[in-house]
């Protein structure tokens, strides 16, 4: 049963969607959701993540705003010759993926054995827009780590971080859960924590309340600012419901609104 409510009656609006499903079935959903969320924030309701910043993060170019020290070498182009030159510069191994999209859809690993098919790979991705060509990191053979960051800091309870390793299945190099990746427990390293400290100022400035960082070795592969999934996997692995910590953090923000009124703008309040 559906019930209509006014946004003025909400304390918090937390944006959630299924990016993988929406990309094919509802390609209009993300942009429309952001516009609706911006109107909601203008009414004085707290929206997380901040919709003004999300409008600038609708594709993987947002990732390029983080310092080069924590990113693998990357090129964004639709020119097949440029991309081929980048792959050659990377020693013949690289990852190609669409600028827009998620869930591992349209991701290819280029190797010396597959180089004759490079143009076909580029054509397959470029049909829907730009191609992201990224340095291949050997550590990716062990999968990647999804580490949750809340209010600019790693989400943790006691000594346990909300993080897990996603490993690929069979010969598929993609570790996304959407394509059958398996979640395993992981030890968060000092290198991962240093990476969070490096990206923290940008996340806070942009009002990114809850983010999923995808990390390979000591490099950031992707910053998931739209509906980062996996807290359920963390609960299954560690027996900790980190969603409770997320809700408590939101309740604290609502209490701040009660104390200070509209003193803080949405982006600032989102990460307080």
Short description:
With 272 residues, the protein is α+β, with helices and mostly antiparallel strands. The protein has helices spanning 19-25, 29-42, 51-54, 80-89, 118-126, 190-205, 231-238, 243-260, 266-270; strands spanning 12-14, 46-48, 74-77, 94-98, 108-110, 131-135, 144-150, 153-154, 156-157, 160-161, 163-167, 182-184, 210-216, 219-224.
Task: Give the secondary structure arrangement, pairings included.
Elements: E1 12-14, H1 19-25, H2 29-42, E2 46-48, H3 51-54, E3 74-77, H4 80-89, E4 94-98, E5 108-110, H5 118-126, E6 131-135, E7 144-150, E8 153-154, E9 156-157, E10 160-161, E11 163-167, E12 182-184, H6 190-205, E13 210-216, E14 219-224, H7 231-238, H8 243-260, H9 266-270
Parallel strand pairs: 1-2
Antiparallel strand pairs: 3-6, 4-5, 4-6, 7-8, 7-11, 7-13, 9-10, 11-12, 13-14
Could you explain how this protein is built, in words?
The protein has 272 residues and is an alpha+beta fold. It folds into two domains: 1-69 and 137-272, ATP-grasp fold, B domain (D-amino Acid Aminotransferase, Chain A, domain 1); 73-135, Dna Ligase, domain 1 (2-Layer Sandwich). It is 33% helix and 21% strand. It has nine helices and 14 strands. The chain has helices at 19-25, 29-42, 51-54, 80-89, 118-126, 190-205, 231-238, 243-260, 266-270; strands spanning 12-14, 46-48, 74-77, 94-98, 108-110, 131-135, 144-150, 153-154, 156-157, 160-161, 163-167, 182-184, 210-216, 219-224. The strands form four sheets. Strands 7, 8, 11, 12, 13 and 14 form a six-stranded antiparallel beta sheet that branches. A four-stranded antiparallel beta sheet has the order 3-6-4-5, covered by helices on one side. A hairpin with a 2-residue loop joins β13 (210-216) and β14. The radius of gyration is 19 Å and the shape is globular.
């Amino acid at each position: 049963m559906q019930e209509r409510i006014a946004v003025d009656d909400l304390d918090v609006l937390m944006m959630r969607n299924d990016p993988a499903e929406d990309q094919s079935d509802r390609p209009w959903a993300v942009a429309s959701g952001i516009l609706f969320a911006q109107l909601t924030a203008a009414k004085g309701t707290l929206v997380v993540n901040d919709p003004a910043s999300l409008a600038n993060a609708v594709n993987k170019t947002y990732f390029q705003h983080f310092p080069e020290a924590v990113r693998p070498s990357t090129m964004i182009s639709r020119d097949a010759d440029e991309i081929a030159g980048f792959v050659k510069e990377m020693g013949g191994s690289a990852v190609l993926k669409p600028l827009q999209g998620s869930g591992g859809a349209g991701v290819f690993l280029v190797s010396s054995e597959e180089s004759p098919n490079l143009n076909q790979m580029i054509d397959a991705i470029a049909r829907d827009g730009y191609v992201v060509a990224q340095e291949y990191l050997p550590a990716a053979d062990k999968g990647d780590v999804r580490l949750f960051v809340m209010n600019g800091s790693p989400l943790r309870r006691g000594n346990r971080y909300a993080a897990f390793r996603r490993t690929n299945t069979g010969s598929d190099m993609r570790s996304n859960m959407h394509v059958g990746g398996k979640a395993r427990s992981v030890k968060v390293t000092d290198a991962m924590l240093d990476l969070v400290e490096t990206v923290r100022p940008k996340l806070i400035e942009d009002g990114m309340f809850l983010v999923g960082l995808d990390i390979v070795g000591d490099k950031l592969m992707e910053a998931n600012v739209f509906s980062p999934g996996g807290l359920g996997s963390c609960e299954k692995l560690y027996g900790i419901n980190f969603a409770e910590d997320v809700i408590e953090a939101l309740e604290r923000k609502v209490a701040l609104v009660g104390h200070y009124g509209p003193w803080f703008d949405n982006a600032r309040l989102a990460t307080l």
